[in-house]
Automatic annotation (TrEMBL):
Gene Ontology molecular function: any one: metal ion binding
Biased composition (Low complexity): 518-531
The protein's name: 2-isopropylmalate synthase
Functional pathway: Amino-acid biosynthesis; L-leucine biosynthesis; L-leucine from 3-methyl-2-oxobutanoate: step 1/4
Ranges of residues in domain Pyruvate carboxyltransferase: 14-276
Alphabetized SMART domains for the sequence: LeuA_dimer
Family: Belongs to the alpha-IPM synthase/homocitrate synthase family. LeuA type 1 subfamily.
Organism per entry: Paenibacillus curdlanolyticus YK9
Disordered: annotated span: 518-537
UniProt xrefs under Pfam families: HCS_D2 (PF22617), HMGL-like (PF00682), LeuA_dimer (PF08502)
EC top class, as a word: transferase
EC id: 2.3.3.13
Keyword list, A-Z: Amino-acid biosynthesis, Branched-chain amino acid biosynthesis, Leucine biosynthesis, Manganese, Metal-binding, Transferase
Top-level taxon: Bacteria
Length: 537
């Protein structure tokens, strides 16, 4: 007996086919060696991906080895071996995936006239025969064959239907109709899928897949349109990476389906809690940055500076957010303090550090806050705590970076020294060496702050242009399996990174101190509650 409602039972299960390690790797500027591919593939499996396309086996020995290793290790995920409609490609894909528990061949050939005339220089009849022959050849080795008619959206419906029928007759079990150049509009994609599924002989016996590029910014919208047209598989990449403007973004598609599942009558098997970790891993590993305003995983996606928005969020998150970032593994940092922020948001941020201020003190803090926000646009947490300390004549932060010096050169080690003041006012100096100036500075700070936490990630951003440009540093640390983020702005980017690291360490220390205090209080309250029961006995 199931507890599902009739609506839930009628939802289409959309298979997520990930091509981050094949099409995504083709992004200009993105690169990942074969050793790193397995790390990403493991995370994709943890994310709940249905099918992984780990590479193009014929393209290089490294790609072949990566596909082979992933096929051997990840036995709970279907592996796709990518190949042109050519025997050497198919042979390489078959060998590379032979140890997979579940596998498919993914064969492709062009279908549009512009590709046939200028790229392949072959007739329509020749291309159809090649597709027939190679699907039949591949069928000797695997049961599951996905066939892609490349540039489907610029292929006339009549010829595309003829090609799809030939592929199905030869043994294809999945038909992929890619928008290879990102040319189509959503209504055209939906009509294409409906038409081919309705008119192609044998279409009712196969599954249909969508593979949309983002040249006009419509990859996700087109993929959703394909689902509405009957596609039950969508091909995606993490962070939407891929050739030119990229592919359909995995996280955007999945969360669109999740957020609007009643309207789409669709669902996926993706583990939402792993979305952010996967996004960050791919970005770092492929050295491919994520745009600030990238939906779902961009740093601004769940951050709000407007005072009106901040006030609404503090009262009820649903006023201005349609998704829960923490459900996707995204740290809760929704409020960015800037010149549009109000006193409510500033007080709330200070309370997160355990800092309480009077109304008179708040007025002074707010006035200084606005002065800094007018210049820098954003007021970092460390700056806010410093402003508060000046207004209240205290040092709220456990540690303050007092001085920093770095010596760099082409013929010597980078040497750094820092002076740090603790909460009781005692100053100590530390020195260290490293391969780079930042490494030497971080080693100094780790000596100064015993519970510094692991230095996990650093982002550097320019906030202006010219020689006097300000740099913003964002540092993420890990302490007792929790992540903490500190930010700082300065013309000296090494100093900004050092200040951001100290800010992140302070967050970790203050957060754990508050947890310990609340735990002690809770224990005391529990003891008081139990006492009457004991005495009554």
């Amino acid at each position: 007996m199931t507890n599902q409602s009739p609506i839930e039972m009628n939802k289409n299960r959309i298979q997520i086919f990930d091509t981050t390690l094949r099409d995504g790797e083709q992004s200009p500027g993105a690169a990942v060696d074969s050793g790193r591919k397995i790390v990403i593939a493991r995370q994709l499996a943890k994310l709940g991906i249905d099918v992984i396309e780990p590479g193009f086996p014929i393209s290089s020995p490294g790609d072949f080895a990566a596909v082979q290793q992933i096929s051997r290790e990840l036995q709970n995920v279907e592996i796709a071996g990518f190949a042109r409609c050519m025997r050497p490609d198919i042979d390489a894909a078959v060998r590379a995936t032979e140890d997979a528990a579940r596998r498919r061949l993914h064969l492709f050939i062009s279908s549009s006239d512009i590709h046939l005339d200028f790229q392949m220089r072959k007739s329509r009849d020749q291309v159809i025969q090649m597709a027939r022959d190679m699907i039949s050849y591949g069928k000797q080795f695997v049961d599951e064959i996905e066939f892609s008619a490349m540039d489907s959206t610029r292929t006339g419906h009549e010829f595309l239907i003829t090609m799809v029928e030939a592929a199905i007759e030869a043994g294809a079990t999945i038909i992929n109709m890619p928008d290879t150049t990102g040319y189509a509009m959503p209504h055209e994609i939906e009509e294409l899928f409906r038409t081919v599924r309705r008119e192609a002989r044998g279409a009712d016996k196969v599954r249909f897949s969508a593979h949309c590029h983002n040249d006009l910014g419509m990859a996700v919208a087109n993929s959703i349109a394909a689902i509405r047209g009957g596609a039950t598989q969508v091909e995606v990449t993490v962070n939407g990476i891929g050739e030119r403007a990229g592919n359909c973004s995995l996280e955007e598609l999945v969360m669109a389906i999740e957020t609007r599942k009643e309207a789409l009558q669709a669902e996926t098997g993706i583990v939402q809690a792993e979305i952010f970790n996967t996004s960050r891993l791919v970005s770092r590993t492929m050295r491919f940055p994520i745009a600030f305003n990238k939906p779902i995983v961009g740093r601004n996606a769940f951050q709000h500076e407007s005072g009106i928005h901040q006030d609404g969020l503090l009262k009820n998150r649903n006023t201005f957010e349609i998704m829960d970032p923490e459900a996707m593994g995204i740290p809760r940092s929704m409020i960015i303090l800037g010149k549009s922020s109000g006193r409510h948001a500033i007080k709330h941020r200070l309370s997160e550090y355990g800092i309480q201020v009077s109304d008179d003190q708040m007025q002074g803090i707010y006035e200084r806050f606005i002065e800094i926000a007018d210049v820098n646009k954003i007021v970092t947490d460390s700056e806010l705590v410093r402003i508060t300390g000046e207004a209240t004549e205290t040092q709220p932060d456990p540690f303050v970076l007092v001085d920093l010096q770095v010596v760099s050169g082409t013929q010597r080690s980078r040497v750094a020294s820092v002076t740090v003041r603790d909460s009781v006012g005692e100053e100590r100096s530390y020195s260290a060496v490293g391969e780079g100036p930042l490494e030497s500075v971080i080693r100094c700070i780790q000596q100064a702050i015993p519970n510094a936490g692991e230095f996990e990630d650093l982002e550097l951003h320019s906030l202006s242009t010219g020689e006097g440009a300000y740099g913003e540093a964002v540092v993420t640390t890990v302490y007792e399996d929790q992540r903490y983020r500190g930010t700082a702005i300065h013309k000296d980017i090494v100093l900004a990174a050092a200040q951001a690291y100290v800010a992140a360490c302070n967050q970790a220390i203050m957060s754990n101190s508050r947890k310990a205090e609340s735990g002690t209080t809770a224990a005391g309250q529990a003891g008081q509650a139990e006492a009457p029961v004991q005495s009554a006995g």
